[in-house]
Write a structure and sequence with these properties.
The complex is a heterodimer of chains A (331) and B (298).
Chain A lengths: L7 E10 L13 E11 L4 E5 L6 H8 L7 E6 L2 E2 L5 H7 L3 E4 L13 H12 L4 H14 L16 H13 L5 E5 L7 H18 L2 E6 L2 H7 L2 E6 L2 E7 H6 L4 H8 L40 H5 L5 E2 L13 E2 L5
Parallel strand pairs in A: 3-8, 3-9, 6-7, 7-8
Antiparallel strand pairs in A: 1-2, 1-4, 4-5, 9-10, 10-12, 11-12
Chain B lengths: L23 H8 L1 H18 L1 H4 L31 H36 L1 H15 L3 H11 L4 H28 L2 H8 L4 H9 L4 H25 L10 H8 L8 H28 L1 H6 L1
Helix pairs in contact in B: 2-4, 2-12, 4-5, 4-7, 4-10, 4-12, 5-7, 6-7, 7-10, 8-9, 10-11, 10-12, 11-12
Classes of the chains: A alpha/beta (331), B mainly alpha (298).
Amino acid sequence: MNATDPLLRVEGLRKHYVSPRQWFSRPRPSVQAVDGVSFTVARSETLSLVGESGCGKTTTAKSVMRLIEPTAGSVLLDGENLLKLSPAQMRQRRSDVQIIFQDPYASLSPRLRAGEIVAEPLRNFRRHSAAERDERIRWLFSKVGLRPEAIDKYPHEFSGGQRQRLGIARALALQPKLIICDEPVSALDVSVQAQVVNLLMDLQAEFGIAYLFVAHDLSVVRHISHRVAVMYLGRIVELADRETLFNAPRHPYTQILLSAVPVPNPRTPTRRMLLQGDPPSPANPPPGCRFHTRCPLAQPVCKEQTPPLSTRKNPSSPGGQGEHLVACHFR
Amino acid sequence: MMPSSAPSALKNAPPGDGTVFVPPRWRWARKHPTLILGAVLLLVVAFVALAAPWIATHDPQDIDPLARMQLPSSEHWFGTDALGRDVFSRTVWGGRVSLIVGISVASVSALLGVVLGLLAGFVRRLDGIVMRIMDGLMAIPGILLAIALMAVIRASLTTVIVAIIVPEVPRVVRLVRSLALTLREQLFVEAAHAVGTRLPTILLRHVLPNMVAPLVVQATFIAASAVLLEAALSFLGVGVPPTTPSWGNMMAEGRNFVAVAFHIILYPGVLLAVTVLAINLLGDGLRDALDPRLARQL
Protein backbone atom coordinates (compact mmCIF):
# COMPACT_ATOMS: atom_id res chain seq x y z
CA MET A 1 0.00 0.00 0.00
CA ASN A 2 1.27 3.37 -1.03
CA ALA A 3 1.12 6.43 1.21
CA THR A 4 -0.14 8.50 -1.69
CA ASP A 5 -3.04 6.15 -2.30
CA PRO A 6 -6.34 7.63 -1.25
CA LEU A 7 -7.76 6.48 2.06
CA LEU A 8 -11.11 5.77 0.50
CA ARG A 9 -11.80 4.91 -3.11
CA VAL A 10 -15.41 4.43 -4.12
CA GLU A 11 -16.01 3.05 -7.59
CA GLY A 12 -19.22 2.60 -9.49
CA LEU A 13 -21.36 2.58 -6.37
CA ARG A 14 -24.98 1.76 -7.09
CA LYS A 15 -27.99 1.36 -4.87
CA HIS A 16 -31.21 0.32 -6.52
CA TYR A 17 -34.24 -0.19 -4.37
CA VAL A 18 -36.51 -2.84 -5.78
CA SER A 19 -40.06 -2.65 -4.53
CA PRO A 20 -41.29 -6.08 -3.48
CA ARG A 21 -43.26 -7.72 -6.21
CA GLN A 22 -46.93 -8.00 -5.37
CA TRP A 23 -49.05 -10.92 -6.47
CA PHE A 24 -50.64 -10.50 -9.89
CA SER A 25 -48.84 -7.23 -10.54
CA ARG A 26 -46.17 -6.43 -13.05
CA PRO A 27 -42.68 -6.02 -11.62
CA ARG A 28 -42.22 -2.36 -10.81
CA PRO A 29 -39.11 -0.43 -11.84
CA SER A 30 -36.38 -0.16 -9.27
CA VAL A 31 -35.58 3.18 -7.69
CA GLN A 32 -32.06 4.15 -8.67
CA ALA A 33 -31.12 6.11 -5.58
CA VAL A 34 -27.41 6.02 -6.38
CA ASP A 35 -26.40 5.14 -9.92
CA GLY A 36 -22.69 4.72 -10.47
CA VAL A 37 -20.89 7.09 -8.13
CA SER A 38 -17.10 7.17 -7.96
CA PHE A 39 -14.85 9.36 -5.86
CA THR A 40 -11.84 9.26 -3.59
CA VAL A 41 -11.09 10.73 -0.20
CA ALA A 42 -7.48 11.32 0.81
CA ARG A 43 -6.15 11.10 4.34
CA SER A 44 -7.03 14.15 6.46
CA GLU A 45 -9.18 15.46 3.67
CA THR A 46 -12.79 16.65 3.68
CA LEU A 47 -14.83 15.72 0.64
CA SER A 48 -18.31 17.17 0.63
CA LEU A 49 -21.28 15.67 -1.15
CA VAL A 50 -23.86 18.32 -1.96
CA GLY A 51 -27.13 18.29 -3.80
CA GLU A 52 -30.81 18.76 -3.25
CA SER A 53 -33.00 16.44 -1.20
CA GLY A 54 -33.35 12.97 -2.60
CA CYS A 55 -30.30 13.12 -4.87
CA GLY A 56 -28.64 10.17 -3.09
CA LYS A 57 -26.08 11.93 -0.88
CA THR A 58 -27.07 10.13 2.31
CA THR A 59 -27.53 6.81 0.54
CA THR A 60 -24.01 7.13 -0.86
CA ALA A 61 -22.57 8.03 2.53
CA LYS A 62 -24.31 5.21 4.38
CA SER A 63 -23.42 2.72 1.66
CA VAL A 64 -19.75 3.45 2.23
CA MET A 65 -19.97 1.97 5.71
CA ARG A 66 -22.58 -0.59 4.75
CA LEU A 67 -25.34 0.77 6.91
CA ILE A 68 -27.11 0.46 3.59
CA GLU A 69 -26.00 -2.50 1.49
CA PRO A 70 -25.16 -1.15 -1.97
CA THR A 71 -26.32 -3.04 -5.05
CA ALA A 72 -23.01 -2.84 -6.90
CA GLY A 73 -19.64 -1.15 -6.94
CA SER A 74 -16.67 -1.23 -4.63
CA VAL A 75 -15.62 0.67 -1.55
CA LEU A 76 -11.89 0.41 -0.98
CA LEU A 77 -10.66 1.53 2.40
CA ASP A 78 -6.87 1.37 2.50
CA GLY A 79 -7.14 -0.83 -0.56
CA GLU A 80 -9.50 -3.36 1.04
CA ASN A 81 -12.95 -3.74 -0.48
CA LEU A 82 -15.42 -3.33 2.39
CA LEU A 83 -18.28 -4.68 0.31
CA LYS A 84 -16.55 -8.08 0.06
CA LEU A 85 -16.11 -8.52 3.81
CA SER A 86 -18.17 -10.96 5.84
CA PRO A 87 -20.40 -9.36 8.50
CA ALA A 88 -17.88 -10.34 11.19
CA GLN A 89 -14.93 -8.89 9.29
CA MET A 90 -16.94 -5.75 8.55
CA ARG A 91 -17.68 -5.38 12.25
CA GLN A 92 -13.95 -5.35 12.93
CA ARG A 93 -13.37 -2.69 10.28
CA ARG A 94 -16.06 -0.44 11.78
CA SER A 95 -13.43 0.98 14.08
CA ASP A 96 -11.88 2.67 11.01
CA VAL A 97 -15.04 4.26 9.63
CA GLN A 98 -17.49 6.02 11.89
CA ILE A 99 -20.55 8.16 11.28
CA ILE A 100 -22.17 11.26 12.73
CA PHE A 101 -25.87 11.43 12.07
CA GLN A 102 -28.03 14.31 11.03
CA ASP A 103 -30.56 14.07 13.84
CA PRO A 104 -28.85 14.40 17.23
CA TYR A 105 -32.12 13.57 18.96
CA ALA A 106 -32.95 10.27 17.28
CA SER A 107 -29.40 8.97 17.10
CA LEU A 108 -28.87 8.66 20.87
CA SER A 109 -30.60 5.93 22.88
CA PRO A 110 -32.99 7.79 25.20
CA ARG A 111 -32.44 5.34 28.05
CA LEU A 112 -28.66 5.32 28.16
CA ARG A 113 -26.49 7.85 29.99
CA ALA A 114 -24.10 10.00 27.96
CA GLY A 115 -21.08 8.12 29.30
CA GLU A 116 -22.60 4.77 28.35
CA ILE A 117 -23.33 6.00 24.84
CA VAL A 118 -19.70 7.01 24.31
CA ALA A 119 -18.46 3.84 26.05
CA GLU A 120 -20.39 1.55 23.71
CA PRO A 121 -17.89 1.52 20.83
CA LEU A 122 -15.05 1.04 23.33
CA ARG A 123 -16.83 -1.91 24.94
CA ASN A 124 -17.46 -3.47 21.54
CA PHE A 125 -13.79 -3.63 20.70
CA ARG A 126 -12.42 -4.38 24.19
CA ARG A 127 -9.22 -2.49 23.69
CA HIS A 128 -9.20 -1.04 27.18
CA SER A 129 -9.56 -2.06 30.77
CA ALA A 130 -12.49 -0.56 32.62
CA ALA A 131 -10.30 2.10 34.21
CA GLU A 132 -8.67 3.02 30.91
CA ARG A 133 -12.10 3.22 29.35
CA ASP A 134 -13.36 5.65 31.97
CA GLU A 135 -10.22 7.70 31.48
CA ARG A 136 -10.72 7.72 27.73
CA ILE A 137 -14.38 8.72 28.06
CA ARG A 138 -13.39 11.72 30.17
CA TRP A 139 -10.73 12.59 27.60
CA LEU A 140 -13.24 12.30 24.74
CA PHE A 141 -15.72 14.50 26.59
CA SER A 142 -13.09 17.18 27.03
CA LYS A 143 -12.04 16.88 23.36
CA VAL A 144 -15.56 17.60 22.12
CA GLY A 145 -16.11 20.36 24.65
CA LEU A 146 -18.45 18.65 27.09
CA ARG A 147 -17.96 18.95 30.83
CA PRO A 148 -17.11 15.83 32.81
CA GLU A 149 -20.36 16.19 34.80
CA ALA A 150 -22.21 15.47 31.56
CA ILE A 151 -21.10 11.83 31.69
CA ASP A 152 -23.93 10.85 34.02
CA LYS A 153 -26.67 12.76 32.25
CA TYR A 154 -29.32 11.39 29.93
CA PRO A 155 -29.58 12.62 26.32
CA HIS A 156 -32.77 14.58 26.95
CA GLU A 157 -30.87 16.78 29.42
CA PHE A 158 -28.66 18.13 26.61
CA SER A 159 -29.26 20.80 24.00
CA GLY A 160 -29.11 19.94 20.31
CA GLY A 161 -25.53 21.16 19.94
CA GLN A 162 -24.38 19.25 23.02
CA ARG A 163 -26.07 16.12 21.73
CA GLN A 164 -24.24 16.47 18.47
CA ARG A 165 -20.98 16.83 20.42
CA LEU A 166 -21.93 13.58 22.14
CA GLY A 167 -22.44 11.99 18.72
CA ILE A 168 -19.00 13.26 17.69
CA ALA A 169 -17.44 11.82 20.86
CA ARG A 170 -18.99 8.45 20.05
CA ALA A 171 -17.67 8.57 16.50
CA LEU A 172 -14.24 9.63 17.74
CA ALA A 173 -13.98 6.95 20.42
CA LEU A 174 -12.39 4.30 18.19
CA GLN A 175 -9.89 6.66 16.53
CA PRO A 176 -11.35 6.17 13.05
CA LYS A 177 -9.50 7.14 9.90
CA LEU A 178 -12.68 8.32 8.23
CA ILE A 179 -15.80 9.87 9.70
CA ILE A 180 -18.91 10.12 7.59
CA CYS A 181 -20.79 13.27 8.53
CA ASP A 182 -24.38 12.91 7.39
CA GLU A 183 -25.59 16.51 7.49
CA PRO A 184 -24.20 16.87 11.00
CA VAL A 185 -25.24 20.50 11.45
CA SER A 186 -28.41 20.89 9.41
CA ALA A 187 -30.61 20.11 12.44
CA LEU A 188 -28.86 22.71 14.62
CA ASP A 189 -29.30 26.44 15.21
CA VAL A 190 -27.09 28.60 13.03
CA SER A 191 -25.03 29.83 15.99
CA VAL A 192 -24.41 26.25 17.12
CA GLN A 193 -23.65 25.10 13.58
CA ALA A 194 -20.51 27.21 13.50
CA GLN A 195 -19.27 25.77 16.81
CA VAL A 196 -19.82 22.20 15.67
CA VAL A 197 -18.21 22.78 12.27
CA ASN A 198 -15.18 24.38 13.91
CA LEU A 199 -14.98 21.49 16.36
CA LEU A 200 -14.94 19.06 13.41
CA MET A 201 -12.16 21.06 11.75
CA ASP A 202 -10.12 21.20 14.96
CA LEU A 203 -10.43 17.44 15.38
CA GLN A 204 -9.33 16.92 11.80
CA ALA A 205 -6.27 19.09 12.34
CA GLU A 206 -5.39 17.25 15.55
CA PHE A 207 -6.03 13.64 14.57
CA GLY A 208 -5.79 13.68 10.78
CA ILE A 209 -9.28 12.29 10.29
CA ALA A 210 -10.79 12.34 6.81
CA TYR A 211 -14.40 13.45 6.47
CA LEU A 212 -17.01 12.49 3.94
CA PHE A 213 -19.25 15.44 4.58
CA VAL A 214 -22.83 15.28 3.34
CA ALA A 215 -24.61 18.62 3.32
CA HIS A 216 -26.91 20.89 1.46
CA ASP A 217 -25.85 24.13 3.15
CA LEU A 218 -23.30 25.53 0.74
CA SER A 219 -21.84 28.10 3.13
CA VAL A 220 -20.97 25.32 5.58
CA VAL A 221 -19.56 23.24 2.74
CA ARG A 222 -17.40 26.12 1.56
CA HIS A 223 -16.03 26.54 5.07
CA ILE A 224 -15.11 22.95 5.83
CA SER A 225 -14.36 21.21 2.52
CA HIS A 226 -11.18 20.59 0.63
CA ARG A 227 -13.03 19.18 -2.34
CA VAL A 228 -16.70 19.15 -3.25
CA ALA A 229 -18.78 16.72 -5.28
CA VAL A 230 -22.15 17.88 -6.59
CA MET A 231 -24.78 15.18 -6.99
CA TYR A 232 -27.94 15.23 -9.03
CA LEU A 233 -30.41 12.36 -9.15
CA GLY A 234 -28.01 9.64 -8.05
CA ARG A 235 -24.97 10.74 -10.02
CA ILE A 236 -22.05 13.08 -9.51
CA VAL A 237 -22.27 15.91 -12.01
CA GLU A 238 -19.22 17.92 -10.95
CA LEU A 239 -16.28 17.30 -8.65
CA ALA A 240 -13.54 19.82 -7.95
CA ASP A 241 -11.54 21.43 -5.22
CA ARG A 242 -13.37 24.03 -3.19
CA GLU A 243 -11.92 27.13 -4.87
CA THR A 244 -12.58 25.90 -8.38
CA LEU A 245 -16.05 24.69 -7.64
CA PHE A 246 -17.20 27.85 -5.93
CA ASN A 247 -15.37 30.32 -8.16
CA ALA A 248 -15.55 28.66 -11.54
CA PRO A 249 -18.31 26.07 -11.60
CA ARG A 250 -18.83 24.50 -15.00
CA HIS A 251 -21.84 22.25 -14.83
CA PRO A 252 -25.08 24.21 -15.33
CA TYR A 253 -26.60 22.50 -12.29
CA THR A 254 -23.71 23.58 -10.08
CA GLN A 255 -24.00 27.12 -11.40
CA ILE A 256 -27.69 27.24 -10.64
CA LEU A 257 -27.13 25.71 -7.20
CA LEU A 258 -24.47 28.31 -6.35
CA SER A 259 -26.58 31.18 -7.63
CA ALA A 260 -29.20 30.24 -5.03
CA VAL A 261 -26.84 30.95 -2.14
CA PRO A 262 -28.05 34.06 -0.33
CA VAL A 263 -25.71 37.04 -0.41
CA PRO A 264 -25.42 39.12 2.78
CA ASN A 265 -25.51 42.51 1.05
CA PRO A 266 -28.96 43.15 -0.46
CA ARG A 267 -27.49 45.71 -2.91
CA THR A 268 -25.15 43.18 -4.46
CA PRO A 269 -26.46 42.60 -7.94
CA THR A 270 -27.29 38.93 -8.21
CA ARG A 271 -28.02 36.93 -11.28
CA ARG A 272 -30.20 34.29 -9.76
CA MET A 273 -30.94 31.37 -12.01
CA LEU A 274 -33.99 29.41 -11.02
CA LEU A 275 -34.86 25.84 -11.71
CA GLN A 276 -38.36 25.02 -12.83
CA GLY A 277 -40.26 22.22 -11.13
CA ASP A 278 -39.11 19.25 -9.13
CA PRO A 279 -36.32 16.86 -10.01
CA PRO A 280 -37.54 13.84 -11.97
CA SER A 281 -38.35 10.67 -10.06
CA PRO A 282 -35.36 8.38 -9.49
CA ALA A 283 -37.75 5.50 -10.17
CA ASN A 284 -38.03 6.72 -13.74
CA PRO A 285 -34.94 8.82 -14.47
CA PRO A 286 -34.75 10.62 -17.81
CA PRO A 287 -32.48 9.02 -20.41
CA GLY A 288 -29.13 10.50 -21.29
CA CYS A 289 -28.03 13.35 -19.07
CA ARG A 290 -30.34 13.24 -16.09
CA PHE A 291 -30.40 17.01 -15.87
CA HIS A 292 -31.60 17.65 -19.42
CA THR A 293 -35.25 18.08 -18.40
CA ARG A 294 -34.38 21.22 -16.44
CA CYS A 295 -31.13 22.33 -18.03
CA PRO A 296 -30.96 25.75 -19.73
CA LEU A 297 -28.32 24.42 -22.14
CA ALA A 298 -30.10 21.21 -23.10
CA GLN A 299 -29.72 20.06 -26.70
CA PRO A 300 -31.11 16.95 -28.40
CA VAL A 301 -27.85 15.08 -27.77
CA CYS A 302 -28.41 15.36 -24.00
CA LYS A 303 -31.46 13.12 -24.23
CA GLU A 304 -29.56 10.39 -26.00
CA GLN A 305 -26.06 10.28 -24.61
CA THR A 306 -25.05 10.23 -21.00
CA PRO A 307 -22.16 12.65 -20.59
CA PRO A 308 -19.26 10.95 -18.80
CA LEU A 309 -17.66 12.53 -15.76
CA SER A 310 -14.43 13.71 -17.36
CA THR A 311 -11.47 15.95 -16.57
CA ARG A 312 -11.40 19.61 -17.56
CA LYS A 313 -8.49 21.98 -17.90
CA ASN A 314 -9.19 24.78 -15.58
CA PRO A 315 -7.49 28.07 -16.42
CA SER A 316 -10.22 30.21 -14.91
CA SER A 317 -9.50 29.49 -11.28
CA PRO A 318 -6.30 30.93 -9.81
CA GLY A 319 -6.34 28.94 -6.56
CA GLY A 320 -7.49 25.77 -8.28
CA GLN A 321 -5.59 22.54 -7.97
CA GLY A 322 -6.21 18.91 -8.63
CA GLU A 323 -8.75 17.41 -10.92
CA HIS A 324 -11.87 19.16 -12.10
CA LEU A 325 -14.43 16.61 -13.23
CA VAL A 326 -17.60 17.63 -15.04
CA ALA A 327 -20.38 15.52 -16.54
CA CYS A 328 -21.70 17.75 -19.32
CA HIS A 329 -21.54 17.69 -23.12
CA PHE A 330 -21.01 21.44 -23.44
CA ARG A 331 -18.97 22.63 -20.47
CA MET B 1 -62.27 29.01 60.16
CA MET B 2 -60.06 27.08 57.74
CA PRO B 3 -56.77 28.90 58.32
CA SER B 4 -56.83 28.50 62.08
CA SER B 5 -57.66 24.79 61.98
CA ALA B 6 -55.05 23.86 59.36
CA PRO B 7 -53.58 20.45 60.20
CA SER B 8 -50.03 20.43 61.49
CA ALA B 9 -48.91 18.44 58.45
CA LEU B 10 -49.29 21.60 56.39
CA LYS B 11 -46.82 23.57 58.46
CA ASN B 12 -44.26 23.44 55.69
CA ALA B 13 -46.68 24.85 53.12
CA PRO B 14 -45.39 27.89 51.30
CA PRO B 15 -47.37 30.82 52.67
CA GLY B 16 -49.67 32.91 50.56
CA ASP B 17 -51.29 30.71 47.95
CA GLY B 18 -54.36 28.71 48.76
CA THR B 19 -53.12 25.41 47.36
CA VAL B 20 -52.44 22.51 49.65
CA PHE B 21 -48.76 21.69 49.90
CA VAL B 22 -47.85 18.29 48.51
CA PRO B 23 -44.42 16.88 49.29
CA PRO B 24 -42.51 16.39 46.03
CA ARG B 25 -42.37 12.63 46.35
CA TRP B 26 -46.17 12.45 46.55
CA ARG B 27 -46.84 14.64 43.54
CA TRP B 28 -46.29 11.74 41.21
CA ALA B 29 -48.92 9.75 43.11
CA ARG B 30 -51.39 12.62 42.90
CA LYS B 31 -50.99 12.74 39.16
CA HIS B 32 -51.84 9.06 38.78
CA PRO B 33 -54.68 8.24 41.18
CA THR B 34 -55.81 5.18 39.22
CA LEU B 35 -52.35 3.71 39.44
CA ILE B 36 -52.23 4.16 43.21
CA LEU B 37 -55.77 2.87 43.75
CA GLY B 38 -55.15 -0.20 41.62
CA ALA B 39 -51.81 -0.92 43.29
CA VAL B 40 -53.24 -0.55 46.81
CA LEU B 41 -56.25 -2.79 46.08
CA LEU B 42 -54.01 -5.39 44.50
CA LEU B 43 -51.56 -5.28 47.37
CA VAL B 44 -54.41 -5.92 49.83
CA VAL B 45 -55.64 -8.90 47.79
CA ALA B 46 -52.09 -10.21 47.44
CA PHE B 47 -51.41 -9.85 51.14
CA VAL B 48 -54.60 -11.68 52.06
CA ALA B 49 -53.83 -14.49 49.62
CA LEU B 50 -50.23 -14.85 50.76
CA ALA B 51 -51.18 -14.80 54.43
CA ALA B 52 -54.05 -17.24 53.89
CA PRO B 53 -52.85 -19.80 56.48
CA TRP B 54 -52.89 -17.13 59.20
CA ILE B 55 -55.93 -15.18 58.08
CA ALA B 56 -58.25 -18.09 57.35
CA THR B 57 -60.36 -18.96 60.39
CA HIS B 58 -61.07 -22.56 59.35
CA ASP B 59 -59.59 -25.30 57.24
CA PRO B 60 -61.05 -24.50 53.79
CA GLN B 61 -61.68 -28.21 53.17
CA ASP B 62 -63.30 -28.98 56.54
CA ILE B 63 -66.81 -30.32 55.98
CA ASP B 64 -69.36 -29.70 58.73
CA PRO B 65 -72.70 -31.37 57.87
CA LEU B 66 -74.36 -29.75 60.86
CA ALA B 67 -73.57 -26.22 59.73
CA ARG B 68 -74.66 -26.20 56.08
CA MET B 69 -75.55 -23.01 54.20
CA GLN B 70 -75.39 -20.82 57.27
CA LEU B 71 -75.65 -17.08 56.88
CA PRO B 72 -72.63 -14.98 57.89
CA SER B 73 -72.08 -15.04 61.63
CA SER B 74 -69.31 -14.37 64.14
CA GLU B 75 -68.22 -18.02 63.80
CA HIS B 76 -68.37 -18.09 59.97
CA TRP B 77 -67.74 -14.51 58.77
CA PHE B 78 -68.94 -15.17 55.22
CA GLY B 79 -71.27 -18.05 56.19
CA THR B 80 -70.90 -21.66 55.07
CA ASP B 81 -71.55 -23.45 51.80
CA ALA B 82 -73.65 -26.51 50.91
CA LEU B 83 -71.16 -28.86 52.57
CA GLY B 84 -70.73 -26.70 55.63
CA ARG B 85 -67.30 -25.38 54.60
CA ASP B 86 -66.29 -21.92 55.76
CA VAL B 87 -66.77 -19.47 52.84
CA PHE B 88 -64.40 -16.87 54.31
CA SER B 89 -61.50 -19.33 54.55
CA ARG B 90 -62.22 -20.69 51.10
CA THR B 91 -62.36 -17.19 49.62
CA VAL B 92 -59.03 -16.30 51.23
CA TRP B 93 -57.37 -19.47 49.94
CA GLY B 94 -59.05 -19.09 46.55
CA GLY B 95 -57.27 -15.78 46.07
CA ARG B 96 -54.03 -17.71 45.84
CA VAL B 97 -55.18 -19.56 42.74
CA SER B 98 -56.24 -16.34 41.06
CA LEU B 99 -52.96 -14.61 41.88
CA ILE B 100 -50.81 -17.55 40.81
CA VAL B 101 -52.70 -17.81 37.54
CA GLY B 102 -52.56 -14.06 36.91
CA ILE B 103 -48.88 -13.67 37.68
CA SER B 104 -47.64 -16.82 35.97
CA VAL B 105 -49.71 -16.33 32.82
CA ALA B 106 -48.62 -12.70 32.53
CA SER B 107 -44.93 -13.38 33.12
CA VAL B 108 -44.62 -16.54 31.03
CA SER B 109 -46.54 -15.15 28.08
CA ALA B 110 -44.59 -11.89 28.28
CA LEU B 111 -41.28 -13.77 28.33
CA LEU B 112 -42.20 -16.08 25.43
CA GLY B 113 -43.73 -13.16 23.57
CA VAL B 114 -40.61 -11.04 23.90
CA VAL B 115 -38.30 -13.80 22.66
CA LEU B 116 -40.50 -14.79 19.72
CA GLY B 117 -41.46 -11.21 18.90
CA LEU B 118 -37.85 -10.02 18.79
CA LEU B 119 -36.92 -12.99 16.62
CA ALA B 120 -39.76 -12.22 14.24
CA GLY B 121 -38.99 -8.53 14.17
CA PHE B 122 -35.23 -8.68 13.76
CA VAL B 123 -34.52 -11.96 11.96
CA ARG B 124 -36.45 -11.46 8.77
CA ARG B 125 -36.20 -15.08 7.66
CA LEU B 126 -38.04 -16.25 10.78
CA ASP B 127 -40.73 -13.57 10.58
CA GLY B 128 -43.13 -15.42 8.32
CA ILE B 129 -42.68 -18.75 10.08
CA VAL B 130 -43.14 -17.39 13.61
CA MET B 131 -46.09 -15.20 12.74
CA ARG B 132 -47.99 -17.96 10.88
CA ILE B 133 -47.55 -20.27 13.88
CA MET B 134 -48.85 -17.49 16.11
CA ASP B 135 -51.85 -16.99 13.84
CA GLY B 136 -52.54 -20.69 14.25
CA LEU B 137 -52.30 -20.53 18.04
CA MET B 138 -54.58 -17.52 18.12
CA ALA B 139 -57.30 -19.59 16.50
CA ILE B 140 -57.40 -21.97 19.47
CA PRO B 141 -59.97 -20.88 22.07
CA GLY B 142 -58.67 -21.14 25.62
CA ILE B 143 -61.75 -22.94 26.91
CA LEU B 144 -61.62 -25.57 24.18
CA LEU B 145 -57.92 -26.13 24.84
CA ALA B 146 -58.58 -26.49 28.58
CA ILE B 147 -61.24 -29.12 27.92
CA ALA B 148 -58.91 -30.96 25.54
CA LEU B 149 -56.06 -30.86 28.05
CA MET B 150 -58.44 -32.10 30.76
CA ALA B 151 -59.36 -35.04 28.55
CA VAL B 152 -55.72 -35.94 27.94
CA ILE B 153 -54.13 -35.27 31.32
CA ARG B 154 -55.61 -34.77 34.75
CA ALA B 155 -56.88 -31.33 35.57
CA SER B 156 -54.49 -29.28 37.62
CA LEU B 157 -53.47 -25.69 38.09
CA THR B 158 -50.73 -26.23 35.49
CA THR B 159 -53.12 -27.34 32.76
CA VAL B 160 -55.26 -24.27 33.45
CA ILE B 161 -52.24 -21.99 33.20
CA VAL B 162 -51.04 -23.63 29.98
CA ALA B 163 -54.51 -23.42 28.49
CA ILE B 164 -54.62 -19.70 29.16
CA ILE B 165 -51.04 -18.97 28.08
CA VAL B 166 -51.31 -20.59 24.66
CA PRO B 167 -53.82 -18.12 23.21
CA GLU B 168 -52.20 -15.16 25.03
CA VAL B 169 -48.66 -15.60 23.69
CA PRO B 170 -49.54 -14.59 20.10
CA ARG B 171 -50.96 -11.28 21.32
CA VAL B 172 -47.67 -10.42 23.03
CA VAL B 173 -45.68 -11.61 20.03
CA ARG B 174 -47.65 -9.30 17.76
CA LEU B 175 -47.11 -6.36 20.09
CA VAL B 176 -43.38 -7.02 20.49
CA ARG B 177 -42.91 -7.60 16.77
CA SER B 178 -44.60 -4.36 15.85
CA LEU B 179 -42.52 -2.47 18.43
CA ALA B 180 -39.38 -4.21 17.16
CA LEU B 181 -40.16 -3.25 13.57
CA THR B 182 -40.44 0.40 14.62
CA LEU B 183 -37.35 0.34 16.81
CA ARG B 184 -35.10 -1.40 14.30
CA GLU B 185 -35.52 1.58 11.98
CA GLN B 186 -34.63 4.04 14.74
CA LEU B 187 -31.46 6.00 14.21
CA PHE B 188 -29.97 5.03 17.57
CA VAL B 189 -30.22 1.36 16.59
CA GLU B 190 -28.45 2.16 13.33
CA ALA B 191 -25.87 4.11 15.33
CA ALA B 192 -25.27 1.12 17.60
CA HIS B 193 -24.78 -1.04 14.51
CA ALA B 194 -22.34 1.55 13.15
CA VAL B 195 -20.12 1.43 16.23
CA GLY B 196 -19.88 -2.34 15.89
CA THR B 197 -22.41 -3.53 18.45
CA ARG B 198 -23.54 -7.12 17.95
CA LEU B 199 -27.20 -7.94 17.42
CA PRO B 200 -27.84 -9.56 20.85
CA THR B 201 -26.36 -6.50 22.58
CA ILE B 202 -28.40 -4.17 20.40
CA LEU B 203 -31.53 -6.06 21.40
CA LEU B 204 -30.74 -6.02 25.12
CA ARG B 205 -29.34 -2.51 25.43
CA HIS B 206 -31.23 -0.50 22.85
CA VAL B 207 -34.40 -2.29 21.86
CA LEU B 208 -35.71 -4.01 24.98
CA PRO B 209 -35.50 -1.00 27.36
CA ASN B 210 -37.61 0.98 24.92
CA MET B 211 -40.39 -1.59 24.94
CA VAL B 212 -40.66 -2.06 28.68
CA ALA B 213 -43.49 0.43 29.13
CA PRO B 214 -45.96 -1.00 26.62
CA LEU B 215 -44.98 -4.52 27.69
CA VAL B 216 -45.71 -3.91 31.37
CA VAL B 217 -49.07 -2.41 30.48
CA GLN B 218 -49.90 -5.33 28.20
CA ALA B 219 -48.83 -7.80 30.89
CA THR B 220 -51.20 -6.31 33.46
CA PHE B 221 -54.12 -6.61 31.08
CA ILE B 222 -53.14 -10.20 30.34
CA ALA B 223 -53.06 -10.89 34.09
CA ALA B 224 -56.58 -9.46 34.48
CA SER B 225 -58.01 -11.51 31.66
CA ALA B 226 -56.17 -14.62 32.93
CA VAL B 227 -57.77 -14.26 36.38
CA LEU B 228 -61.18 -13.98 34.76
CA LEU B 229 -60.52 -16.88 32.40
CA GLU B 230 -59.39 -19.14 35.26
CA ALA B 231 -62.60 -18.36 37.11
CA ALA B 232 -64.61 -19.10 33.98
CA LEU B 233 -62.79 -22.40 33.39
CA SER B 234 -63.23 -23.46 37.01
CA PHE B 235 -66.86 -22.42 36.89
CA LEU B 236 -67.35 -24.64 33.86
CA GLY B 237 -65.62 -27.51 35.66
CA VAL B 238 -62.62 -27.66 33.34
CA GLY B 239 -60.31 -25.65 35.52
CA VAL B 240 -58.73 -26.12 38.90
CA PRO B 241 -59.79 -29.46 40.48
CA PRO B 242 -62.62 -29.12 43.02
CA THR B 243 -60.27 -30.13 45.86
CA THR B 244 -58.53 -26.76 45.51
CA PRO B 245 -60.77 -23.86 46.48
CA SER B 246 -60.80 -21.19 43.78
CA TRP B 247 -63.22 -18.35 43.23
CA GLY B 248 -64.39 -19.98 40.02
CA ASN B 249 -65.29 -23.37 41.40
CA MET B 250 -66.75 -21.83 44.58
CA MET B 251 -69.18 -19.93 42.41
CA ALA B 252 -69.85 -23.05 40.36
CA GLU B 253 -70.76 -24.99 43.49
CA GLY B 254 -72.79 -22.11 44.94
CA ARG B 255 -74.67 -21.57 41.71
CA ASN B 256 -77.27 -24.25 42.58
CA PHE B 257 -78.16 -22.58 45.83
CA VAL B 258 -78.36 -18.97 44.71
CA ALA B 259 -82.00 -18.74 45.65
CA VAL B 260 -81.50 -19.90 49.27
CA ALA B 261 -77.87 -18.99 50.01
CA PHE B 262 -76.79 -16.04 47.90
CA HIS B 263 -73.75 -15.36 50.11
CA ILE B 264 -71.93 -18.45 48.83
CA ILE B 265 -71.32 -16.90 45.42
CA LEU B 266 -71.47 -13.28 46.57
CA TYR B 267 -68.07 -13.12 48.29
CA PRO B 268 -65.90 -14.89 45.72
CA GLY B 269 -67.75 -12.98 43.00
CA VAL B 270 -67.09 -9.61 44.62
CA LEU B 271 -63.45 -10.48 45.30
CA LEU B 272 -62.99 -11.57 41.68
CA ALA B 273 -64.50 -8.33 40.43
CA VAL B 274 -62.37 -6.23 42.79
CA THR B 275 -59.17 -8.05 41.84
CA VAL B 276 -59.76 -7.70 38.11
CA LEU B 277 -60.71 -4.06 38.59
CA ALA B 278 -57.55 -3.47 40.60
CA ILE B 279 -55.33 -5.02 37.93
CA ASN B 280 -57.06 -3.04 35.19
CA LEU B 281 -56.71 0.20 37.15
CA LEU B 282 -53.05 -0.58 37.65
CA GLY B 283 -52.62 -1.22 33.94
CA ASP B 284 -54.42 1.99 32.98
CA GLY B 285 -52.41 3.96 35.51
CA LEU B 286 -49.12 2.45 34.32
CA ARG B 287 -49.97 3.22 30.72
CA ASP B 288 -50.54 6.87 31.59
CA ALA B 289 -47.55 7.09 33.91
CA LEU B 290 -45.11 5.39 31.54
CA ASP B 291 -46.20 7.17 28.38
CA PRO B 292 -44.14 10.34 28.29
CA ARG B 293 -46.26 11.89 25.54
CA LEU B 294 -49.37 11.68 27.72
CA ALA B 295 -47.43 12.94 30.72
CA ARG B 296 -46.35 16.04 28.83
CA GLN B 297 -49.90 16.83 27.85
CA LEU B 298 -51.10 16.79 31.44
